[in-house]
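Appendix B. Raw example, untouched.
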Amino acid sequence: LISISPDVPETDSTKLIENIKAWVTEGSKSLYSASQGWAYFNNVYILVPSVWSPIAGVQPAHEVHEDAQVRVELTSSIYGDSPFTLQTGECGEQGEYIQVSDNFLTSMLPDPNSVFGPSGQVCLYEWSKFRYGVFEEHGYPGDPLYPMFYSKQIFAVDGMKTIVKPNFCTN
């Protein structure tokens, strides 16, 4: 489920919806290629805000924005227009959701020279973090949500110990 926040203005709604479809289609092609034909996005639903004007051919929904796996929001005060995945678990655990800005979808996505790279790869990169719990290549110094390292307390035979682990997937 992809949901557009009620805070996103309706002004470019048609362009936004078409670009969401294009982004997911390109992401599905990248996923299909990367998985050697094993995986792709089959059914994707877009939840539009109820405050928007009616859209022809749209079915009523019973979902809410907060339940969506992909959320289209206004530009983030922290991440700007960069898509990101909120991942609160450990490596291999599914993330909470993917967030992408309306500006990214309407202005940056169609630009073939975008700093983000090919749209399908951006979609797949975020999806891999969300669905499969793949971490960024590294954490960020001083970032409370994505630190370079995290500590975990365990109880061992000789008492409590603190283990420091890097914030990225390792084998």
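End of appendix B.
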